[in-house]
Design goal:
By secondary structure, this protein is α/β, with parallel strands linked by helices. The protein has 2 domains: about 210 residues, Alanine racemase (TIM Barrel, Alpha-Beta Barrel), CATH 3.20.20; about 140 residues, Lyase, Ornithine Decarboxylase, Chain A, domain 1. The strands form 3 sheets. Strands 1, 10, 11, 14, 15, 16, 17, 18, 19, 20 and 21 form an 11-stranded mixed sheet that branches. The protein has an 8-stranded parallel sheet with strand order 8-7-6-5-4-3-2-9. A two-stranded antiparallel ribbon has the order 12-13. Helix 1 packs across helix 3 and helix 7 runs parallel beside helix 8. The model has no long low-confidence stretch (mean pLDDT about 95). The structure holds pyridoxal-5'-phosphate (PLP). The site of pyridoxal-5'-phosphate (PLP) has 12 residues, from helix 9 and strand 9. It is an enzyme of class 5 (isomerase). Keywords: Isomerase, Pyridoxal phosphate. Its EC number is 5.1.1.1. It comes from Sutcliffiella cohnii.
């Protein structure tokens, strides 16, 4: 087991991940499978640990953004099928083939080039991506899709396993655009089904799965809700079951001192004590992803909300304590203490962004502790591991 030598860490409660996947599984109609989306190091949580937990809980497929993320999972012993959601370079397809990684195809010219490059005996597994209105990746022309289906049919280089699309507004209360995309999708799927049979058809991210469980075809790509976060603020009151937030960010007081009236704290001396007060130093800063913009935020100490004072430094920040507290006292930046809780949603609101960004922005400098069945299962220190 890895270890670390600093007083700041992320705790990932894998029981929450497990429960969220199970809740989703029992919520969805029978026959709908779960693709656990573990891109970006599982939204900053830890790729292999989340992947294993999701598979234990009933997910049958994994998804990442690019090939290197899939290879990271393979190197950590994950054997389950993995879909790369983003664009892959043709020159990298043989490594995908060798490692049994499924690629997304959204251009005919890519496929033509790929036929020339492939050198394995087995076919490369592919999913076709349809652009029904997201405007990111995907086929928009049915003529091109038709040509692609013919091409796939004529060679033995590919196994066409799936077809999918992505919605742009599934998390918004107004469903007009969603309905338009859905109509385009059903037309395109109808066309494809006339030409060939497809094992997997998927269109649902978390928001779609939670709101339109009967419209997801036979698989969902479950991301944010698996981590226990709501896809959007608009959806907070629409959740069909409770989500359990897996990510918390912890630290400890490493220094405590009494400030006299007129003494200041941190760069720029922007904060000055107006009365005698206790100040604690916390060893986490913007290089850990706790952005300088968070100077107005609060943290939890001794079950109470206390303010960050003065500018946040690269590796440290200061907080105003209600009274003297011992060195080593737990400081919670995201998570719960007694009756108080700071969610990634709260931090997102302060930064005027979405909750997705919050666990993603906590950098590799912060070690991850994984809990399963309430006890520590694994420690990962990205600075020392690999
Ligand atoms: C990231 C991603 C998802 C997961 O979306 P969530 O909103 O986190 O559930 C699904 N599909 C694609 C194509 C993605 O890029």
């Amino acid at each position: 087991m890895s270890s670390f030598h600093r007083d700041s860490w992320v705790e990932v409660d894998l029981d929450c991940i497990y429960n969220n996947v199970q809740s989703m599984k029992s919520f969805l109609p029978d026959g709908v499978s779960i693709i656990a989306v573990v891109k970006a190091n599982a939204y900053g949580h830890g790729d292999a640990q989340v992947a294993k937990t999701a598979l234990d809980a009933g997910a049958t497929y994994l998804a990442v953004a690019f090939i290197d993320e899939a290879l990271s999972l393979r190197q950590q012993g994950i054997k389950a099928p993995i879909l790369v959601l983003g664009a892959s370079r043709v020159k990298d397809i043989n490594i995908a083939l060798q490692e049994n990684i499924t690629l997304t195809v959204f251009r005919k010219d890519w496929l033509v080039e790929a036929i020339q490059q492939l050198n394995g005996k087995n076919p490369l597994k592919i999913h076709l991506k349809l652009d029904t209105g997201m405007g990111r990746l995907g086929f928009t022309s049915m003529r091109e899709v038709d040509e692609v289906l013919q091409l796939v049919d004529e060679t033995s280089s590919f196994e066409l396993e799936g077809v999918y699309t992505h919605f742009a507004t599934a998390d918004e209360l107004d469903t007009t655009y969603f309905e338009q995309q859905y109509t385009t999708l059903t037309d395109m799927i109808g066309f494809i089904k006339e030409k060939t049979s497809i094992r997997m058809i998927h269109c649902g991210n978390s928001a779609t799965a939670l709101r339109f469980p009967d419209k997801v075809f036979n698989a969902v790509r479950l991301g944010i809700a698996m981590y226990g976060l709501t896809p959007s603020n608009e959806m907070i009151h629409l959740l069909p079951f409770e989500l359990q937030e897996a990510f918390s960010l912890q630290s400890k007081l490493v220094h405590v001192k009494k400030l006299a009236v007129g003494q200041s704290v941190s760069y720029g001396a922007t904060y000055t004590a107006e009365e005698e007060e206790w100040i604690g130093t916390v060893p986490i800063g913007y290089a850990d992803g706790w952005l300088r913009k968070l100077h107005g935020a609060h943290v939890l100490v001794d079950g109470k909300r206390v303010p960050i004072v003065g500018r946040i430094c690269m590796d440290q920040l200061m907080i105003r304590l209600p009274h003297e507290l011992p060195i080593g006292t737990r400081v919670t930046l995201i998570g719960a203490q007694k009756d108080e809780k700071i969610s990634s949603n709260d931090i997102a609101r302060l930064l005027d962004t979405i909750n997705y960004e919050i666990p993603c922005m906590i950098s590799y400098r912060v070690p991850r502790i994984f809990r399963r069945n309430k006890s520590i299962m694994e420690v990962r220190n990205y600075l020392l591991d690999n």
